[in-house]
Amino acid sequence: MTDRQVSLRREGAVAVVTLSNPGRLNAMTRAMWRELRAVFDGLRSDDGNAALRCVVVRGEGGAFCAGGDISEYPSFRFEEAGLREFHENEVWAALQAMLDCPQPLVAQIEGACMGAGVEIASCCDIRLAGASSKFGAPIAKLGFPMAPREAALVHGAIGDVLARDMLLAAGVHGAQRLYDAGFLLHVLPDAEVPAAAQAHAARIAALSPQAARLHKATFTALKAGGAAAQQLLATAYDYADSPEHREGIDAFLAKRTPNF
Q1: pTM (predicted TM-score)
Q2: In the chain, which end has fewer C-beta atoms inside a 10 angstrom radius, N or C?
Q3: Which key words tag this protein in UniProt (predicted)?
Q4: What are the tens digits of pLDDT across the range 50-68?
């Protein structure tokens, strides 16, 4: 095991992705961004993951992710081509792989959720956080902006008011403020977050995986609009004769638990 890694473990129908950078509150290194992409590319492409129904994303040691690992920045941030390569082909490629994941993603947020952590959490479908968690992206203190696609992702997830404060005023906010903004589903006592995230993932895993995949595709298409939304309408009812559709209706009518 290395000091810096993105690990994956399976717990039945649920996968757990863990960010780990000991001593740096799981700040993302360039290698971790590449590993994060590889993990989610693998989840999407591996036929062995057909039984996978939900993914929990968490950080090691009581922190989610404190941002980027600034100790690496002098080695690449001061040259335009290298900076573009980092944001477009490492960071965004990893975030896009998360966004493309067909299974629902549950963010288990503990402690620091800053910068890159907010971006990673923004890719998740459901977000639960501890009461002491802190959220922000104070990179204005470092003299640079959030990359355009990353900023659009965060803006869409947390809303205009908080996005502007985080990026323009280096604002850092507590979990309750993020709950009020609609970013978080629940704010929980810190010690309850891991169990709550696992319970929520188990709840999702017990439901129809086909319905989950189609709902995620619907959200993506409607957000994109235009041709994507029109294509959605063209294929929206292709599931009509699917086994899961029949099983769900049959089970309801028979007053039994469906076997998805």
Answers
A1: 0.94
A2: N
A3: Lyase
A4: 789 999 999 999 999 999 9
